[in-house]
């Protein structure tokens, strides 16, 4: 158990695998791209896969995340440990459910995309460790109650759109939800009354 924890701590200290500004159209293209080299190189396993928990794919032209899981398993030694993903400034129109399969995800940047529907955020409620999220610069930012909606759906996040979430933000979001979100009606089967 201790060895595994030490391994995860070491991964957290590794720099991100950086594919930013590569003009990437399809996720699969990452396997043939060379990542950017930062101040510190990303360590690699014996198989040549990156030993990191962070991934930058920002400032590209992605419009979907098809084959995301398969591509990451080719790039990362431990894709299940992915904790930080930057997909900002792409052309994503929705929040792909594949992101919710990374249960260790704590930071997700989606700002500057093309997300139009506020209920897309609901998908992220299944991420237990999500603490930081960005969505500004998407069309949903213009919807009335944008911040309150997101904070009511994701009560565990501590930073939203690079701004800290205060106790007052949480109170406002709770009140907003009570006033604006109608509870689902329970339909009784007709057979029960016959």
From TrEMBL:
UniProt xrefs under InterPro entries: Leu-rich_rpt, LRR_dom_sf
UniProt KW keywords: Cytoplasm, Leucine-rich repeat, Repeat
An annotated GO cellular component: cytoplasm
Subcellular locations according to the entry: Cytoplasm
SUPFAM superfamilies: L domain-like
Name of the featured protein: Leucine-rich repeat-containing protein 51
Organism: Vombatus ursinus
Origin organism lineage: Eukaryota, Metazoa, Chordata, Craniata, Vertebrata
